[in-house]
Amino acid sequence: MKKFLFTLLFFGFACALAANAPGVRATVELVTGTKQTAQFLGVENDTVSLGGSIKGKFTVVKIPANRFKSIVDEQGKDLLPAPKAAPVKETPATDTTVQHPTTNTTPQEFTEQDSADYPHTYTFLDSVEGKHLFIATECRSRDSALAEQLDNLIVKLIKESGTPIVYVKRNAFGNCTDATCIRDSLSTHHAASAYTGRITAGRAADSVTLQASHYILDDTTAKTVSAQINLSAIRSMGDALSNDKLSHFVRTLQGEKIAPPKPSDNRSYIHVETDPEGTNIAIHGKEDVCKSPCTFATLDTGKIVLYAYWTVNHQLWSAKSTIRPIPGDTAKISLKLKKSKPELRVSTTPEGAEIYAGSAPLTPKSKPIGYAPDKFSISEPGLSTVQIRRVGFRDTLVTVFVSPTEITDINVELTPITNLQEQIVQNEWQSTRKKNFIGKTLMGTSIAPFLLGALFTYLAMVDYDDADKIKDSLKFPASGGEKYQAKVKENKDLAESGDRKMIIGGSLLGAGALLLGVGFVLSF
User: Residue 136: enclosing H or E segment and its boundaries?
Assistant: First the structure.
């Protein structure tokens, strides 16, 4: 209950921050997972000061530093100071211990109960003597979720091999973050061994590389063992688990010599010819594999659905066939393309959700391509991505293989939002979007007053010109009879008509300018 009240207090404060408040604008994350933007004012006596405006009055809130997980400014710099180290008592060299801040918790080995809640992180270690430690994998921020999952599996695999292992976050070593510094520190404090690793971008654009080293610290004659694997950036975990790739990686780190996998004898080949040639060949559910005529290998032994498609002058031509490969043999297939009009049909539960094309982040200015249920003509089949958004529900990103020969149906079950912060963010997004819509509507509406105002102004000028001509003719009157008086009256009527039209035209122009200005402010 205390954590819940604390989190509410933090949210209430952070959401009311003023943009021009003093201090450094930073992203603040509590240990409870709560994240918000705040003005960082500094740290004093292990207490963080945050500032902001509440009900128009600048207010400072002080929160203990140990309640924060991170404080990062807009340049990505970590503003949260490293916890102060506990005082170290002088002891003999054999009793040297690693001193860590805030708490004196002895590192423990994982138990079966711990593994269910993995990763069980030991941030503060009093002693590492005789321990085997796994240091959290170093990675880019975009790979943090992947690193956590891989750490989880690697630690479990090491445990299953019979080695007791302790997982340690990198911030447990303070400013000592690189592998060499960590290794030397652990060696000084008589740790048994240490595993360190990092995830980097692979050579290919769609791959990542996992590198790790195993340092044997209690045996000076033992060599450091290193291993490396490349993983698909899109299907990293599936790739790591396929063919025991991650298991072989861990066994290599532990010093085992792993023989390379034997080539499969079950590989089969498919040769595809089409009329016309040069069409895209795709397997159902996957990206294009080649252009016809072509031959490609496969390990699939079940039925394979093949598509051939070709787009010319915005018209799609396609063909479909099902084939069962023969292990060790080549299957041949010939396809003749014909005109097709495939469609993607999107349904949601509940209905009425907005449908956006592509995977680009949505903004209040993003325009939906339709509202579920709806269907769309397809000119580029294959893997397509759509985003689904509905007020009160979480945004859903769906990637689906769109068939080039038939209707592809997808039905998305939307998940209601139960988190207060997510509701606040979505409401703000929706409010901004409504303002943007109203602004653009007003800007579009302003065209009519401008056109009418210009028309009335023009008509007023025509009346003024006619009145001036009559006025000039009256300067030299031939006689002062009824004809003269009629012209005087006509001159007066034209002048008054011009005045009325000029007032109407000016009012319309002013209204148009007002609508344009208000619309511009709301839109931008």
Answer: none
SS3 for 145?
Answer: helix
Q: Where are the domains of the chain?
A: 2-73, 100-253, 268-337, 343-416, 443-523
Q: Which of 417, 401, 421 is nearest to 409 (CA)?
A: 401
The closest alpha carbon to 154, from 132, 124, 176, belongs to 132
Question: Mind listing the pLDDT tens digit for each residue in 267-287?
Answer: 778 888 998 888 888 888 777
Find tokens 């140990």 and name the residue: 66
Supply 516's token pair: 């344009």
- The yes or no reply on domain 343-416 and CATH 2.60.40.1120 is yes
Cα separation, 444 vs 23, in Å, equals 41
- To 10 degrees, what angle do helices 420-445 and 482-523 make? 160
Nearest CA-CA partner of 307 in 382, 215, 419, 197 = 382
Using the predicted structure, report yes or no on whether residue 67 has a pLDDT greater than 80. Answer: no
**Top CATH class, 2-73:** mainly beta
Nearest to 352 by CA among 398, 385, 391, 384: 391
Length of the chain: 524
Please give the sequence-ordered ranges of beta strands (E in DSSP) within 182-255, or none if there are none: 193-201, 207-216, 225-232
With beta carbons less than 8 A apart as the criterion, state whether 99 and 174 touch: no
Assigned token pair, 259:
């023989």
**Which CATH code is given to the segment(s) 268-337?**
2.60.40.1120
d(CA 304, CA 310): 20
Neighbour count for residue 1 (Cβ, 10 Å): 5
**CATH, range 100-253:** 3.40.50
Spatial separation of the C-alpha atoms in residues 355 and 358, rounded to whole Å: 10
Say if residue 55's pLDDT is above 60.
Answer: no
Longest dimension (CA), the chain: 132
